[in-house]
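Quick one:
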Amino acid sequence: MKYLQYIYKHEIAFVRILIPFILGTISYYGCTNDWVLNQLILINSVLFLYLLFRKNVYKKPGKSRDKSLNGLILHLLFFFTGGLSSTLYNEHNDADYYIFKKSNYFKIRIIDEPKNKQNIILFTAETSKSINIDNYKSDKTEKKHDIQSSSGKIKVTILKKTDTAFNLKYGDELIIPAKPIEIKPPLNPSEFDYKNWLASQNIYHQFLIKQEELIKLKSNAGNSFIKFALQLRERQVRIYRSLIKNDDAFAVAATLILGYRADLSLEILDIYSKTGTIHALSVSGMHVGLVYIVLNYLLWFLDREQSWKIIKALFILISIWFYALLTGFSPSVLRASIMISAFIIAKLLAKNTNSYNIIAFSAFCILLYNPFLIWDVGFQLSFIAVLGLIYLQPKIEKWLPVKQFWISKLWNLVAMSLAAQLATYPFSVYYFHQFPIYFLFSNLFITIPTALIMYIGIIILIFRLNSLGPFFEWLINFTNNGLDQIASLPFSGITSIWLDRIELGLLCFSILLFTIALADFKKQLLLYSVVLFLALQCFITYDKLLALHQKKVIHFKLQKNYAIAIIAAQRAVLFTDLEPTSKPFNYAIKPALDQHRITQITFRNSNITNVLKDNHIFD
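Output:
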């Protein structure tokens, strides 16, 4: 009960409003009904006016019953505010949504950095005008133009001509033919749900356009501040490219420090994934946190007087947002910058600040701007990791009190890695279906090299110290090779872990109750956590028993290839023209086989018309 009482204290006011806000956002996600939207507006208005009346007009002495009623109304208000925010953000509810327009062409503006590949250019765009051209015949052939405003985000793929140089940039305005293609759901079991992923970004259609079909109107029509940030990052990337010869080392430097979507090789991605250090390759809260930690440590002498503390806070804030500028305002860096900025300002204005309240405030502001981010995996993991560090790290450190300075620092790093991994473990397993056994060792290994790579990389960019280039490249290669050795160790990871939502919930609650029970020595909570864990094991054991007795045929739907899997128990014979290392196999076929707990796959490239007639396919 003490935890429920604590949640109602004023120092965590934003925690109180964030929880119902998130529940409302989730409950009304995907709602496109105008009647529901109108009802949400009415309900929010009534609840707000009621609270306003109770506060300013009805001023009887407060009773516990009245306070409980006011608290309930407040929670309902933020629940329906979350629902209203989610519904209004959904572009299907916009009267100008482009799909409702009768159009032949759309005027669009590129709103992200185009990804330029060999034969195609990929980018996200926002429509601004719909153009309808009706040809009709009279005495002469004429054209009637009907131009209306429109809105909505789209995914665009441009097929480039092979004999011409063609580039697009953020802010370019184009005229493209109206050829919206509704994004299809996954065709194969357990395949990545691209449709749902784009829907969480408010994108529901894609366009496939030939280069000769589009008209380029003008450039630099986007937000000038974002344009400047992207151009600045592009210049920094060119500096790294001139200094670093190894392609993998360049890709790691550009990705780790600047958040540039460099083409990381599958081998590098696999190494970082197997060792549980994939977070190092995405510019996120960890990187912004490193900037804050170093500056806070170097400027310790400014903590003596309040006026100097203000100067220190301003300098750190400017540095953090300058780093965000260097990364082209990467979404993950923006989230971390908002969170740390709120923390710095709160620490400056008040002596006693609640870390949970600061995190809740940051999350509330971000979700109020974009409620669909609640479905973003990076958003979820970053906030869960921070919560784990705040709550679990101090408790883990108390398990082993150490007085010796350097051993204490090492134990601090161990506690940090354990806290972050334990907090994110359920969702990491649910989304990525694997668990790195040597995560503790690999995270300790990269702690110092990653920090050095980041600091040296920023110093090179700011002070143009190109002489540090060879050491910078050597350090990245050393880190990659070290992680490769760890990934090559026996039993480096558990793969093919598949949990459904019920099992995810059981795992989350069992870990939560277990950590609370150990922290406060609560035997009853420990018993509850064991019961939930046993229930989870029952579900997992049942799934394994089903896998041992399964017999089925899966016909995979592929664009250019064929694949049929005949499954018996935990063995599968796969008739396909794909190689085990090909992308279609790893993205469309392997997830389904992993979910069916297949441990032995036999590849056969034979005539598929005779597959089902073969009585010895498992021989």
